[in-house]
């Protein structure tokens, strides 16, 4: 990764490089590993250790063998626990002893290494940097460059444009007339829906999906600008957008992930918000395309969403979306049976790693379903819906509008709000703790929730 001048620097005034090289210099100064070879053949030496294995020797003998050589190391078998092994390492003029393990790779902590040499190299780097720069490391997140480099600036501009576009497209709902005294009493929820349409739903904020990553070659943290030290697992990388940061810095990075389509490899089984942001759409395109196809030619189909399409054809639709995205052909000339498209839509919702109705909102909705008074139940459902992330809320809203249209053709398709609630309850939500007992006991309330959402979609959304 190349160094470059600060993006905020005055063109006529020289600025030092953004990337901070202090920790990189320390890594270069760290002691190098020096294997202490056993001078004789050791019987019963484990096949995954080399000549650095000395068998059963005492700590005093180890001190003598490693004395005066920084970075010197050997492996010994425990005197008290035969079959257990210790890595002895000379650092800071003292011998450090670590319990050593092997499960196909060598480790003393979380990191796994292909060789003892790599393990010791990484350990010496860590020990040296933490000894020399502990205060510096503790402070390195306090003055981040994240807000000033191109990555964060581009994100802010992209989000601002998106918010501006959504606000301009939002329709203003006028206040109902106060003079109409013949209107029936309406709940506070209905009043809120009429007077104060939600604006925050447009802001599709998303947390980064950080995973431990091994960087090949020198890398610098894109949050604090400091070198990512170590031999392996030096930091974390966002699997959705590719942002590289220290593990400790990842706690401070804003929830401004903008997923890259190149990194989002599939449509099904992909986090809903990730898919939405990657395609820059208000809802997952698979939902839009399937619903559009169903409404064009399937609203009067008897048993819509209840009758199953052929499983292999539904899998074909899934693979088409994963392969072709919004270019997938789900038209009548390819899939004449509309139940295949309906089945593919239900499968999409079932495959989501986090359900449309999230684990956070689930218990609130279960409580709401048990409220006997209809108006109070509606209020409770509305409050629970506010817990949904924007992409989940918008997807649920769009689906409920569609299902309401389905019920308007009940005479032909025989699908009432109650029937759809039975089908879509377990499709859109599941209890946080996966257990057969919890799932069975919640099914009636899941049905009640979806039925309420369909019947009151104009008020709740």
Core attributes:
single chain, 461 residues, alpha+beta, six-stranded mixed sheet, three-stranded antiparallel sheet, 17 helices, 9 strands, elongated, disordered N terminus
Can you put this structure into words, describing what you see?
The protein is α+β, with helices and mostly antiparallel strands and 461 residues long. It has helices at 22-29, 59-66, 116-132, 134-139, 150-169, 188-195, 272-279, 285-297, 311-324, 338-351, 362-369, 374-385, 390-407, 410-413, 417-428, 436-455, 457-460; strands at 34-35, 53-56, 72-77, 85-91, 94-102, 106-107, 210-213, 235-238, 244-245. Helix 8 (285-297) packs antiparallel against helix 10 (338-351) and helix 13 packs across helix 16. It starts with 21 loop residues before the first helix and ends with a helix. The model is unreliable at 1-16 and 169-202 (pLDDT under 50). One of its GO terms (biological process) is signal transduction. This is Chimaerin. Residues 52-120 form the SH2 domain. It is a peripheral membrane protein.
Task: Quote the average pLDDT.
Answer: 85
Task: Report the structural category.
Answer: alpha+beta
The counted number of beta strands is 9
Measured as a percent range, the helix fraction is 40-55%
Specify the overall morphology.
elongated
Rg measurement, Å = 30 Å
Poorly predicted spans: 1-16, 169-202
The run of helices and strands is HEEHEEEEHHHHEEEHHHHHHHHHHH
- The total count of helices amounts to 17
β-sheet strand percentage: 5-15%
Q: What's the N-to-C terminus distance?
A: 47 Å
Largest sheet: 6 strands, mixed
């Amino acid at each position: 990764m190349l160094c470059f001048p600060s993006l905020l620097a005055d063109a006529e005034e020289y600025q030092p490089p953004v990337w901070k090289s202090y920790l990189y210099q320390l890594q270069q100064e760290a002691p190098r590993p020096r294997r202490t070879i056993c001078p004789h053949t050791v019987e019963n030496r484990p096949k995954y250790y080399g000549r650095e294995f000395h068998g059963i020797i005492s700590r005093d003998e180890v001190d003598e063998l490693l004395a005066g050589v920084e970075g010197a190391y050997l492996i010994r078998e425990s005197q008290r626990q035969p079959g257990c092994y210790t890595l002895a390492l000379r650092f800071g003029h003292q011998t450090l002893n670590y319990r050593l393990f092997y499960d196909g790779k060598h480790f003393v902590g979380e990191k796994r290494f292909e060789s003892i040499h790599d393990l010791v190299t990484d350990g010496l780097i860590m020990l040296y940097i933490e000894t020399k720069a502990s205060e510096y490391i503790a402070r390195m997140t306090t003055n981040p460059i994240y807000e000033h480099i191109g990555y964060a600036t581009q994100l802010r501009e992209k989000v601002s444009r998106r918010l501006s576009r959504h606000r301009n497209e939002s329709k203003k709902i006028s206040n109902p007339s106060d003079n109409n005294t013949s209107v029936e009493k309406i709940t506070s929820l209905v009043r809120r829906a009429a007077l104060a349409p939600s604006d925050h739903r447009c802001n599709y904020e998303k947390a980064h999906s950080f995973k431990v990553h091994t960087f090949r070659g020198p890398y610098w943290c894109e949050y604090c600008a400091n070198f990512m030290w170590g031999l392996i697992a030096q930091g974390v990388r966002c699997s959705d957008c590719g942002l590289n940061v220290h593990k400790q810095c990842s706690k401070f990075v804003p929830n401004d992930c903008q997923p890259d389509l190149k990194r989002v490899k599939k449509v099904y089984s992909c986090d809903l918000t990730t898919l939405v942001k990657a395609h820059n759409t208000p809802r997952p395109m698979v939902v839009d395309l399937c619903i559009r196809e169903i409404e064009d030619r399937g609203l009067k189909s008897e048993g819509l969403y209840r009758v199953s399409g052929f499983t292999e054809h539904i899998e074909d639709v899934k693979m088409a979306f994963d392969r072709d995205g919004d270019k997938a052909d789900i038209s009548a000339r390819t899939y004449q049976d509309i139940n295949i498209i309906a089945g593919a839509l239900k499968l999409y919702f079932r495959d989501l790693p986090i359900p449309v109705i999230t684990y956070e909102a689930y218990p609130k909705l279960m409580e709401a379903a048990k409220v006997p008074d209809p108006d109070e139940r509606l209020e409770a459902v509305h409050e629970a819906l506010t817990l949904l992330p924007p992409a989940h809320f918008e997807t649920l809203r769009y689906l409920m509008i569609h299902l309401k249209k389905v019920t308007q053709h009940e005479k032909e398709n025989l699908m009432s709000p109650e029937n759809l609630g039975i089908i879509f309850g377990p499709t859109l939500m599941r209890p946080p703790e996966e257990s057969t007992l919890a799932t069975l006991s919640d099914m009636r309330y899941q049905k009640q929730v979806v039925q309420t959402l369909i019947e009151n979609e104009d008020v709740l959304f």
